[in-house]
Design brief:
By secondary structure, the chain is mainly beta. It contains no helices and 7 strands.
C-alpha cells in the first residue's frame, strides 16, 4: 500500500526489497496499531523462487488478515536477521488507515 492509504482485510502487499533483506526467500511483516499493538503478523515471500540470493532487489508478495477497531497504524517490513545481531536489524514502516 501507499503511505497513508486506507486498507482493508485481507491486505495484499507487494513490492521490492533490497538485496539482503530476505533469508531463504522470506522476511517478516506485521501490521500494528498507532499504539504498536500487533494485529497481524506473517511472512513476505519472494515472487520468483531463488531470487533472494541473487544480490539484486527482490520482488515479494504477502497477505495479512486482520480485525481492528483502530483507525490508524503501520505496516512494518522487517529485514530477516537469522544472526540475531542487533547491528543486522532493519525495518521500514508504512503508515496506513484502517477501513
Amino acid at each position: 500500500p501507499q503511505e497513508n492509504s486506507a486498507v482493508t482485510s485481507p491486505l495484499t502487499i507487494t513490492g521490492d526489497v533490497p538485496a539482503g533483506w530476505m533469508f531463504e526467500g522470506s522476511f517478516p511483516i506485521k501490521l500494528v496499531t498507532e499504539q504498536n499493538k500487533v494485529i497481524a503478523r506473517g511472512l513476505a515471500k519472494e515472487t520468483t523462487p531463488g531470487s533472494w540470493s541473487n544480490g539484486k532487489p527482490v520482488a515479494f508478495t504477502a497477505q495479512l488478515t486482520f480485525v481492528t477497531s483502530a483507525s490508524d497504524g503501520n505496516l512494518v517490513l522487517e529485514k530477516d536477521n537469522p544472526s540475531g545481531l542487533p547491528e543486522n536489524d532493519a525495518s521500514f514502516l508504512i503508515p496506513v488507515k484502517f477501513k
